[in-house]
Structures are given as C-alpha cells and as structure tokens.
Amino acid sequence: MKIDGVFSGGGVKAYALIGALQSFHEHELVFERVAGTSAGAILAALIAAEYHTDEIGELIQDLDIQKLLDPPKLSSIIPISKWFFLYFRMGLYKGDKLEKWLHRHLAIKNIYTFKDLKYDSLKVVVSDISLGKLVIIPDDLERIYGMNPAYFPVSKAVRMSAGYPYFFVPKQLPGKSKRKSLIVDGGLLSNFPLWIFENERKEKIRPVLGVKLSAYPEQQKPRKIKNALDMFHALFSTMLQAHDTRYISTSQRNNILFIPVGHVAAMNFNLDEEKKEKLIQIGNERATQFLKNWP
Q1: How does strand 181-185 pair with strand 133-137?
Q2: The one catalytic residue among 23, 38, 121, 214
Q3: Residue of 128, 140, 185, 244 marked active site
Q4: Do 126 and 158 touch, CB atoms closer than 8 A?
Q5: What's the pTM?
Q6: How far apart are CA 171 and CA 202, in angstroms?
Q7: Which has the closest alpha carbon to 147: 105, 186, 175?
Q8: Helix (H, G, I), strand (E, B) or coil at 7
Q9: Which backbone phi and psi does 150 adopt, to 5 degrees?
Q10: Are 19 and 32 in contact (CB under 8 A)?
Q11: Are 94 and 103 in contact (CB under 8 A)?
C-alpha cells in the first residue's frame, strides 16, 4: 500500500526509526512522500533517495556519530576556547561533517538538489530564528528567500533541520533583504509536522503515517524542576513540544505510531551497540503492534 510518512526528531533516539522502518517494509508499506524534522529529516531524505530499508539500516548502524562532531580546530588546542565559539558562533560544532556525510550518501543515488528527487516527495522542516518562522524546504524557499527550490542542496536542507541549537552552529540563508537569516533545528517550531501533507481543505491524498519518538502526550510524566538548569531544560522541551502536542490532541491518534524512548537522551552520542540494538528492537516491536490495527 502506498502511504505518506512523517518522522519526528529525536537525536540518537532515531535508531528506533530503523526498527519501525523494517516493520513497515515487512507489511509492504511504500512511501510516496516523506517529511521530517532533525533526525527524522535524515531518515526521510534517505527514503526519498530510494535507499532500501536494509541499506538505511546499515548506513545508520555503521555510522560513528562521534566522527561527525567537528569543533573548530582551535578548540582542540585550547579547550576553553569552545565557550568562546559557543558565544560568538552560537554552536559547539560546525556541522560540516554531517552535511558532507549526507551529501556523499545521497550522491550515490544521484541526488544532489531537490530537482533530482521525485516531485513533492520530500519536505524538510527548519526554523528561521531571524524571521521567527517555521520554514518548509523546498516549498517556502521561493516565497521567503527568493531562491529557486529546484537547485537547493538536499544535504544542506537536512543539515539545517538537524542543527540542534547551541550544539551545531546555525546555518545562514540569504534572503530578499541584505540581512541573512539564521537557521536552526526544525524541532524548535515543529518536531513532528504531521500536518504537512494536508491541503487547504484539510484533506489527505493517501493515508499518512506519523512516527513520533516519544510516548503519547497524556502518558508523559511531569518534569521535576529543582533549579535554574532544570527550568531551562523544561522551558526548551515545552517549547519544542507545544505546537505538535496541540495538533496531536485534535487529530486522529490512530495515525500516529508513538515509540516511547524517553529513557535515552537525544544528544547521547556514546550509545553502545547493545543500547542501539535495543532501540531498534523497541521501534520494530511497537510498529508491528501498531500495524495490526492500521490503517
């Protein structure tokens, strides 16, 4: 059956998406269009590039995430300088290695820009913090920035969507004015853009399956806030989830696969193989159970 898919962000929790993808393949679900934010955008881009499920699993499992972390060279010589870069460049890591990794593997499938993909097959969500706007690439490039979406690099779009604030240096996009926009992780404004394939009349062309790396909102436990750091984390997490939680509460829950992986920190890049396999297993089991009653 042909469907559309939407994948949430979640950092390293995205290993669970591999397990879910394996189950979708076993149930003969074929994605016509895909969309995602952050880690979900990485998976969506690989699907749109027509990577097979097994190929995606191998790519992600063989990836050494630590090698994608690229702090400025001065930081390795003078460690304390990383805080200087955090303040003035607004990120600890450049993110260039992540973009090059994406470029290299998309190029294997002859995918460089959005014109190389099937029309309307991929939508990537990013946050423009200069304009205060949620931006969908490639849809909004012409309207907001005056850019031809056909020639925009897919790897750059996905890298921007995965630009976790303060962790990766924000990307810049030239716009219609002289001032450039700072672009960060799409999850800042919509970590789970399930609404993205609705038309103006709120209709759907085909079934839309959403995969969210969290428990159902009503099942999430209240946060313990004991100090200013806890409060900052709670504020940031609430901001990430507020828009999507409201939408989920008013939409059909039956179209969303919730994978409870709250026990894993999104930026924990030191996961061992056992924990990775456990995440994959959780994703597969939850998806298999979910698909017994879907669509």
Answers
A1: unpaired
A2: 38
A3: 185
A4: no
A5: 0.87
A6: 32
A7: 175
A8: strand
A9: -60, -30
A10: no
A11: no
Cα–Cα distance for residue pair 86/234, rounded to 1 Å: 21
Q: What is the pLDDT along the chain (295 residues), one digit of tens a residue?
A: 999 999 998 888 889 999 999 999 999 999 999 999 999 999 999 999 999 999 999 998 888 877 877 777 666 666 666 666 666 678 888 889 999 999 999 999 999 999 999 999 999 999 999 999 999 999 999 999 999 999 999 999 999 999 988 888 899 999 888 889 999 998 888 888 888 987 655 566 889 999 998 755 545 567 678 876 667 666 666 666 665 566 665 556 788 999 988 777 766 777 888 989 999 999 999 999 999 999 8
Q: Is residue 185 among the annotated active site residues?
A: yes
DSSP labels, 82-115: HHHHHHHHSEEE--HHHHHHHHHHHHHTT--BGG
Residue 103 token pair = 């470029």
Which backbone phi and psi does 281 adopt, to 5 degrees? -65, -45
Pairing outcome for strands 256-258 and 208-212: parallel
CA dihedral 133, 6, 101, 72 (to 10 degrees): 40
